[in-house]
Design goal:
The chain starts with a helix and ends with a helix. The protein is built from nine helices and no strands. 72% of the residues lie in helices and 0% in strands.
Length: 234
């Protein structure tokens, strides 16, 4: 089987094994993305790079799903990070929804690489490359938005809880209809399966807490940056 066949195969096998080289490479790319997003966030070329990377990734992935008539239990964009990819990329301007998904995308990318759960295909299958570069593009787009346009007044603790529970309620219904495991609500990783309702509550609470933690860390960072700017002008 040549690389072209591996790239587009629909024959599921098993996910790739992630060794030390994988983690060193991925976390190097993560660190580079954090640094460059902070350094070059105002550069149009930098912004366009991650936007184009995200758009190409989504077109290729969902084009592959569509051409091969993949089942609805796998091919809909109802994973949290996939939804964030579309919202952060396509929703214009400043809004609480874009801000919510940018926070979710920042945490979600880190979680995806710390505890990867890729599709069961060999490397370099389109789904595996999409997992890697799609999350990196999501992180880049999320950080650019948050570092340039974050507004603490747009989204409070109550808003985060309401949006998370509403979002997961939608995913819950989609899973019931399609038989999928979108959002990992059917079989949550790490904590295990405790039944549909308990899974919904556990994942929603954990995700809300993670987004609030990401929000707090970002606000502390931006506050420190603001104090540095004031000190320089003084």
């Amino acid at each position: 089987m040549n690389l072209w066949d591996i790239f587009f195969t629909t024959q599921a096998t098993e996910p790739p094994k992630f060794d030390l080289f994988w983690y060193v490479s991925i976390f190097t790319l993560l660190a580079l993305t954090f640094y460059t997003a902070y350094r070059y966030r105002e550069k149009k070329a930098y912004q366009r790079f991650f936007q184009i990377l995200q758009a190409v990734q989504l077109i290729l992935l969902y084009g592959w799903y569509g051409v091969n008539h993949m089942p609805l239990s796998e091919s809909l964009p109802f994973y949290h990070c996939r939804m964030a990819m579309f919202v952060v990329l396509l929703l214009p301007g400043q809004s609480k929804y874009r801000q919510y998904f940018a926070l979710l995308g920042t945490f979600g990318t880190l979680a995806a690489f710390v505890y990867p759960v890729p599709d069961p295909y060999p490397f370099p299958h389109i789904a595996i490359l999409s997992f890697i570069f799609g999350h990196l593009a999501l992180l880049g787009n999320s950080l650019v938005y948050l570092l340039r346009q974050y507004n603490a007044r747009l989204l409070d603790v109550k808003g985060i809880f309401l949006m998370t529970f509403a979002l997961n309620a939608l995913i819950f219904v989609v899973n019931l209809v399609t038989g999928g495991d979108y959002g990992f609500l059917t079989k949550p990783p790490l904590v295990g399966d405790h039944g549909l309702v308990a899974n919904y509550l556990i994942v929603s609470l954990a995700l809300s807490a993670a987004i609030m933690l990401t929000k707090k860390i970002l606000e502390l960072f931006l506050e420190q940056e603001s104090e540095k700017m004031i000190a320089k002008k003084a």
